[in-house]
Specification:
The chain is α/β, with parallel strands linked by helices. The chain has a single domain, classed as 3-Layer(aba) Sandwich (Rossmann fold), CATH 3.40.50.150. Helices cover 27% and strands 24% of the residues. It contains seven helices and eleven strands. Strands 1-2-11-10-3-6-8-7-9 form a nine-stranded mixed β-sheet, sandwiched between helices. A two-stranded antiparallel ribbon has the order 4-5. β4 and β5 form a beta hairpin. α2 packs across α3 and α5 packs across α6. The longest helix has 18 residues. Bound molecules: S-adenosylmethionine. S-adenosylmethionine (SAM) binds next to α1 and β11.
């Protein structure tokens, strides 16, 4: 696995992973070939501060990939990867970007400059968020998900599975009322220990969040791409819903984690040899 950092891994006919910088890999993918992109880019928040985890003060630092390079360079990076994503999306394709106030305004401004059509901003509310240690700020308990269509032209209809959102089973979400329209505030706890069985990633998203994104905005057989794969959550949700998946991750350790997690997800979905 040591060479994973620079390779293409064909996990199955429905799942391809790339090790490397998404700015190098996205230009190699065919233009207008992707239905939906979910991107959870660096937050640019690893500034040596402290937060609270399990009642203890811990560093906020996620890794060198999350350090800020200054506002202008961070903005240029967001411009580059979002532009590269726009090229590979189909005209009716949509891009989800997940982030916090450290990066989400820059990403939103890029979407406007590149003439995406902004469809929604979702507030992902974390009912189990960690308390604020300094007691000098509100406790950060949400992240924002921007959802935008490549084409600003309304002739290009994006997928929105309205009925699945209205009538699906969301009993773990304390805000979603059965049979009522899905609103733009989603209450979903951070990932449980069982979702980290293959190893830990400092910013792993809950599977419930990605299951909802995939169920809302894609159809079976669609191609879903994640340029900042991390632990592979988007892939687990996409493959679980019979979609195809492409993931890109720069850090070989996280690529290995995603590889193990997705191989396991594929094994669980494969029909047993004894099945009639
Ligand atoms: C916020 S995390 C994604 C977490 C993921 N959504 C999950 O559920 O595990 C961002 C990931 O992007 C990776 N990364 C950062 N810059 C990258 C780049 N230029 N190309 C590809 N991956 C990158 C980091 O190593 C990190 O694992």
């Amino acid at each position: 696995m040591s060479a994973l950092g620079s390779m293409r891994i064909q996990l199955s006919d429905r799942c391809t992973l790339y090790g490397g910088n998404c700015l190098d890999i996205l230009p190699r993918l065919p233009e207008s070939s992707i239905d939906v992109i979910f991107a959870d880019p660096p937050y640019n928040l690893s500034n040596d501060g402290f937060t609270c985890q399990g009642g203890k003060a811990v560093s906020v630092n996620k890794g060198s990939w999350d350090r800020s390079d200054g506002i202008e360079r961070d903005f240029a990076f967001h411009m580059d990867w979002i532009k590269a994503c726009k090229r590979v999306l189909k005209p009716q394709g949509t891009l989800w970007i997940s982030g916090t106030y450290h990066n989400i305004y820059a990403c939103g401004y890029v979407l406007q400059l590149l003439e995406f059509r902004l469809l929604n901003d979702i507030c992902w509310y974390k009912p189990n968020a960690s308390p604020n240690l300094s007691c000098r700020f509100f406790t950060a308990s949400h992240e924002t998900l921007l959802w935008a269509r490549k084409s600003s032209n309304n002739r290009h209809k994006h997928v929105f599975n309205y009925e699945a959102m209205k009538n699906g089973d969301f009993h773990r979400d304390q805000l979603k009322l059965p049979g009522r329209q899905m609103r733009s505030v989603w209450a979903i706890p951070t990932p449980s220990a069982s979702e980290k069985a293959h190893g830990k990633h400092p910013t792993q998203k809950p599977l419930d969040l990605l299951d909802r994104v995939i169920a809302a905005s894609t159809r079976p057989g669609d191609v879903v791409l994640d340029p900042f794969l991390g632990s592979g959550t988007t892939g687990v949700a996409a493959l679980g819903g019979d979609r195809r998946f492409i993931g890109i991750e720069a850090d070989p350790t996280y690529l290995q984690l995603a590889h193990a997690r997705l191989a396991d997800a594929l094994r669980r979905r494969a029909p047993s040899p004894d099945a009639g």
